[in-house]
Hints:
Elements: H1 3-15, E1 21-31, H2 41-53, E2 55-58, H3 61-72, E3 75-83
Antiparallel strand pairs: 1-2, 1-3
Amino acid sequence: MNDLFSDSLRQLRKLSVYEPMQFRVTKINFDFEDDNFELSPNEQQEVIEETLATTWEASDADDLVEEITNATGWCVNSFYYCYVLN
Length: 86
């Protein structure tokens, strides 16, 4: 996502015009491969479990991927999610 779009979303959130939706991730596959660093299988599972246990706020699926990537530090390869109804 380019910076202009990210800045626009931040501005909308500040104006309270934008109401983020809530999501729960039901299944996720991260790209845990890195040339300089490798997580143990236990650490990988912890990242996955924490992601699944979190209720995420985002504007749409693309924003949800960005939120998860920013929070975990790992790129999302694929995922399934559902909306949380209030």
